[in-house]
Design a protein that fits this description.
This protein is mainly β. The chain contains no helices and 9 strands. It is 0% helix and 58% strand.
Length: 142
Amino acid sequence: MIVLNPRRVQFGATPLENVAWIAMDRQGTRVTREWSDEGPYPVFVDVPEQAITITVAQELVREDLSTPFGGVPAGVGQVAMLSFVTSPNATDQSRRRVSVSAALVSLSHSVSMRRATRTFVFEAVASSAASDPVTVSNAEGA
């Protein structure tokens, strides 16, 4: 999933301004494969474990000496609800809210002559091992 220019982004009680994009990637962390004696290709593949990584790129428009989210240095290790609202166009129609309980695992900055970017990397945390931590709901009127 990739979202360009999300309308609202929030981690816990902290709104994130000027977010350029959000990418949500799923990766199998354990893959089971089985082959038969009939050829070189697997006849069975299962992915019993997976991880969801969410990257949020925030464009900085001025210098920022604060630590986002406070507390622990730069908030790394903090777990809270990450949510954002997106829509296919600038109207309120077809707006969707994506919510996921997430831990901030990395916070980095990049600077060039034209822009400064703060990149947050989160990992999704499920409430139970069998439930997908990402929920997508209707956000019209929100």
